[in-house]
Amino acid sequence: LLRDTRDAVVVPMLHGGLGEDGALREVLDVLRVPYVGSTGAASRLTFDKTIATSIIRAAGLATPRQIALPHDIFRELGAPALMEGIGAQLGYPLMVKPSRSGSALGVTKVNNASELPSAMVAAYAYGPVAEIESYLDGVEIAVTVIDEGDGPVALPPVEIRPESGVYDYEARYTAGATRFVTPADLPDDVLK
User: Fold this and answer.
1) Are 103 and 172 in contact (CB under 8 A)?
2) pTM for the structure as a whole
3) Do 109 and 93 contact (CB within 8 A), yes or no?
4) What is the 3-state secondary structure (H, E, C) of 61-102?
5) Residue 44, SS3 per DSSP
6) SS3 (DSSP) at 37
7) Any residues with CB less than 8 A from the CB of 103 and at least 6 apart, and which?
8) Could you give the CA distance from residue 19 to residue 52 in angstroms, rounded to a whole number?
9) Strands 108-110 vs 178-181: parallel, antiparallel or unpaired
10) In what helix (H) or strand (E) does residue 19 lie, and over which residues does it extend?
11) Each residue of 127-151: pLDDT tens digit?
12) DSSP state of 27
């Protein structure tokens, strides 16, 4: 397929790390194969939640308070002391997730200190760094932005309403577990 690419344009639809972390797009750049979507560098930045959150915060947008905790530090410094410090700094509830993963794999809402250790183990099952962040209660909205060469254009916002209250792996991939409302049920000025 990649030997004769004179007229090829790749539409990346791979799910998971290799399809979302920018690696495939950088290989396509090296091979000079045009593709649809973000650059490899942009994909790499947004795939790591701890980096993406820092960039969003630097742009002046509000983000949840966050702690990035590598597994090695978690193991070496001792879980009990860290668990107490995390709870004291961020409060409960909070969200625990792998810093580099998609589909909400390893994501857990933690309501109290007794749930935190198992949430950390779940996050570490998908990567070496766990992101722990303050829980934000509100309406979850997804907005796709496209650029066909004339500048970015936002598509209608989609409101995400998981039955469980948390948009985790099960809510994403279990038929009927989440309702999607387009455009989002928001006041006109907010939609604008």
Assistant:
1) yes
2) 0.82
3) yes
4) CCCCCEEEEEHHHHHHHCHHHHHHHHHHHHCCCEEEEECECC
5) helix
6) coil
7) 15, 16, 169, 172, 173
8) 17
9) unpaired
10) helix 17-20
11) 999 999 999 988 999 999 988 889 9
12) H
